Amino acid sequence: MQSSNHLPPTEAERLQRTTVLPGWDAQKVASTHVAVVGSGGLGSPLLMGLVASGIGRITLYEHDTIELHNLNRQILYGRGDVDKPKAQTAKEKLQTLGNTAIDLAGSFGEDTEPQADIVVDASDNFRTRYMIADASPELPCVWGSVLQYGGQVAVFPPGSSLRDLYPEPPSNPPSNAIGVLGPVAHVIGSMMAVETLKLAQGLGQPAQLTVYDALSATTRQFQLR
């Protein structure tokens, strides 16, 4: 068990059930800076998991506003948040969960170069996903996607990216055309949070391509070359 004596007393008490985990180093987590792209269906549980676990700093790339049809899966928000900006609303809600410093960075663009230890792709469109893949090849990237009743998670180490898995964008229709079961997004977003925290700690083995199928209650693992 790693000491949490350097954490503020209330934070040490809040994180007590985490800091007693074998191999857990609260200081490593508290000193980690994560760039997160997206605070929607994947980003909501992801961000909540990171902040609740004591991650030190998050730079959030998000420019959308909250719409009513988001609420079946974007659990950071409620009915009273409709028409509000996602980024600012997410920051306000996340600050009630922990001491994480949260910076708002607007849209992720073609010239964006994240300054962080880890990049997390929780975006919802292929254009942004491939911009992320091309922008930060020197950083580890946690990636996830969800559609209908299933999803995928992978960790790309420095020097690799989404293009190693899908060299060109798939031709799938957008999720708003064929739907997403909200809790499936929560499963995948939580898996992404776990992988991010593992990277921050250097714990365990990073996920290869993990494919989750809710209807058959199965996960399949594929080796990334």
What's this model, at a glance?
This protein is of the alpha/beta class. Helix content is 32%, strand content 19%. α4 (43-52) crosses α9.
Provide an overview of this structure.
The protein is an alpha/beta fold. Helix 4 crosses helix 9 (182-201). Helix 6 (126-135) links the parallel strand 4 (118-121) and strand 5 (141-147). The radius of gyration is 17 Å and the shape is globular. It folds into two domains: 1-25, no CATH class; 32-222, Rossmann fold (3-Layer(aba) Sandwich), CATH 3.40.50.720. The chain has an eight-stranded mixed β-sheet with strand order 3-2-1-4-5-6-7-8, with helices on both faces. It has helices at 9-14, 16-19, 26-30, 43-52, 86-94, 126-135, 162-165, 175-178, 182-201; strands at residues 33-37, 57-61, 101-104, 118-121, 141-147, 150-156, 209-213, 218-222. The longest helix is centred in the C-terminal third of the chain and has 20 residues, at 182-201. It has nine helices and eight strands. Helix content is 32%, strand content 19%. One of its GO terms (cellular component) is cytosol. Keywords: Nucleotidyltransferase, Transferase. Residues 26-223 form the THIF-type NAD/FAD binding fold domain. One of its GO terms (molecular function) is ubiquitin-like modifier activating enzyme activity. This is Putative adenylyltransferase/sulfurtransferase MoeZ.
